[in-house]
Design the sequence.
């Protein structure tokens, strides 16, 4: 898999990685997501299993697209949630505050 759009329903079976900043995370995130801000990802990549599918999310999809491309280059099975948290909330999926 590469930098693709992932169907929102896929998060039921994938690890969710949220690469937003702490204040964005605190405002609302996907339950069970792992929070690693984009700038911290290179130093914390060992917290992710490269064999586990990872759905990467940010606010609207730009930062998560960059994180996804980088993760794929590192050998991870990662996809970008196109539209990010905006799309998640528009689909009326639950968030944790």
Sequence:
């Amino acid at each position: 898999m590469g930098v693709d759009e992932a169907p929102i329903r896929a998060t039921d079976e994938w690890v969710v990685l949220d690469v937003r900043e702490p204040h964005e995370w605190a405002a609302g995130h996907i339950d069970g997501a792992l929070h690693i801000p984009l700038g911290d990802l290179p130093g914390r990549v060992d917290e992710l299993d490269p064999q586990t599918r990872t759905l990467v999310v940010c606010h609207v999809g730009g930062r998560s697209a960059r994180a996804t491309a980088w993760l794929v280059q590192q050998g991870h099975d990662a996809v970008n949630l196109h539209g990010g948290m905006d799309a998640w909330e528009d689909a009326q999926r639950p968030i944790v505050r």
In short: The chain has one domain: 8-90.
